[in-house]
Amino acid sequence: MATRGPRLEFAVGAFLVLALASLLVLAIASTNGRFGLSGDTYELTARFTQIGQLRPNAPVKIGGVTIGRVSKIDLDPVKFDSIVTLAIDERFSEIPIDTSAGILTGGLLGESYVGLQPGGDMEVFKPGEELVFTTPAVDLIQMVGKYMFSGGGDNAAPGDAQPAPAAPSAPEEGTTP
């Protein structure tokens, strides 16, 4: 058997180090910027009737820019609403008090996130306050199911107006009716 020199062993070792480094970069990139937020945050809450697939650590975004994370999801035992606690980065402390929140999905099958739509009020949120204007998550599977079983909107209910039958056309010249 031929002996392997130190060059080959060095090349294999360098290749493994590069492969592990690329996996580390991929792992950090797949966290979707989670490490881009500073450590100082303040909390806001939002109440939703339906949160869909929203999970803790989901991003909170304004205009596609991540400004925070979902820190906690609880259930209100009286109203049975979902209470979502948002940890917002301190750099974004000037969010208007009339801002609305919605649960959105990145793409057709992407992750759920909380999207904020800032209002125009001069007053801003203080830590611990609740966003009043919220829009629940849209359940795509339920929507597709309703569309499929409704016939795509072509089914007319009994008693609905039906189109009038076409009027008989006049016979062409030279033909007998």
Automatic annotation (TrEMBL):
Any Pfam family from its record, for instance, is MlaD
**From which domain of life does this come?**
Bacteria
InterPro entries named in the record? ABC_MlaD, Mce/MlaD, MlaD_Phospholipid_Transporter
Mark out the compositionally biased spans (Low complexity).
155-177
Please give the residue ranges the record annotates as the region Disordered.
152-177
Q: Where is the Mce/MlaD domain?
A: 41-119
What is the designated name of this protein? Outer membrane lipid asymmetry maintenance protein MlaD
Q: Which organism is it from?
A: Luteimonas composti
